[in-house]
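Q: What would this complex look like in 3D?
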Amino acid sequence: MKSAVIVFPGINRERDMARALKLISGREPAMVWHADRELPAGTDLVVIPGGFSYGDYLRCGAIAARAPIMDAVRAFAAKGGLVLAVCNGFQIACEAGLLPGVLMRNAQLRFICRDVYLRVERSDTAFTRGYNAGQVIRVPVAHGEGNYIADGETIARLEGEGRVLFRYASPDGMIDPNWNHNGAINAIAGILNDHGNVLGMMPHPENHVEAAMGCTDGRGLFAGLSAHFLQAA
Amino acid sequence: MKARVTVTLKSGILDPQGKAIEGALKSLGVSGVASVRQGKVFDIEIEGGDRAKAEAALKNAAEKLLANTVIENYRIEVTG
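A: Here is my prediction, written as C-alpha cells for the whole assembly.
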C-alpha cells in the first residue's frame, strides 16, 4: 500500500499517522507538503491527518481545504482513490467538499481528550474490512469541534445508504447520549462519501496500534486497508 | 472602497457559543436578553471604485471562503 500523508502548517498528528502506516502496511508513506500540486505517482491511499491546520483560523479546516494540494486530492478522490481523513482531516475534507456536513463546536463546549468506544457499523468497506459489523473498538479522541451535523436530507441519505461507518457507543455497543461525547447527530463518528472511497472520522485509530499504547483496536483499519490493496494487486 | 461581510449561523443551527454568552449575560444581570447568536464580521478594503465589481468580488469571497454555506448565511455591505 503506497500511502501519502498530506502535511499542512499546524498539523501535529502526521508522524503518528506515518508510524501507524509504516508499522502495519510495511511501507513508509510519502509526506506531501500542502503547497505541492501533485501526489506521488502510484499513490493508493491519501491520508489527511489531525492537528490544528492554520491554527483553526476562520473555521477548523477552512484554510487547509483551499491549499494547492487539495485540488490534486479532489481529483484523486474523483477517480475513486481512497482517502482517509482523521480529526482535523475530517474537518478539512468537509470544508473541501469531499464529504457532506460540518463539524461544529462540541455540545459541551469543552475540548475532549480521552478514549471513546466506537461501534463499527459495517465490515464490507475497504476501511472497515478488518473489523466485524457491530464490533466495539476503543480509540482516543482529541478535539474541540467534532459535533457532526448536516441538513436533514443529507443525514437521511447517509443513514439510508449505510454511509455511517462509526458511531460513539457504550463499551457494550449501545447508542446512548451519555456516550456521545461531542453531541454529534445520531452519534456519528465517521462517514463515507457517496462513492464510498472517502472516510472522515474524528477519533484517532492511528493512536491505538501498538501494545505500548495500551490498546491495538485501531490496527484493524490499517490492516483492512493493507489487505484491500494486497488483494487488488 | 470599504466593505463589510457579516457571517451568521443559519436559523435552526445550534450555537453553543451563543448559548454560553447568553448564559453569561444573564448571570451578569443584563436584563431583557432573550437570546444570543454569535457571528463573524470581516472588514475588507476593495481596490478601485467600481461598486458592482466590488460586490461581485465580495460574493465570490464569501461563497468560496468566508462562509460555510452549509451552516452559515452572509450579508455584504459596500460602505463606500
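A: To summarize the key features: The first strand of chain B starts at residue 2 and ends at 9. Chain B is about 35% helix and 30% strand.
Q: Very helpful, thank you.
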